[in-house]
Specification:
Length: 105
Amino acid sequence: MYAIVEAGGKQHRVEVGQRLAVERIWSDAAPGSEVVFERVLMVRSDDQVKLGKPIVDGARVRATLIRPLRGDKVIVFKKKRRKGYRRTTGHRQNYFEVRIDAIEA
């Protein structure tokens, strides 16, 4: 059984027991707390598929927050030729590592 959920503007294929990194969208969540993904786009179990238009009614995915993470640094370099303009900045995205506990269809 697996589901496709939307979190942080991205779609993730999740199964029970899987660990994945999602964008940090809960500001007050602490490690060990339970989070619920309400935007479930598809659920598949054995030979049955439920597609949402755009979300599946009544479907939820429960997960436990493991720890906060930070992504790799992305270097941003800006330059305008012949003008002496050069800027270098970096960005590291904040993530949460979550463990999928249950898929409720």
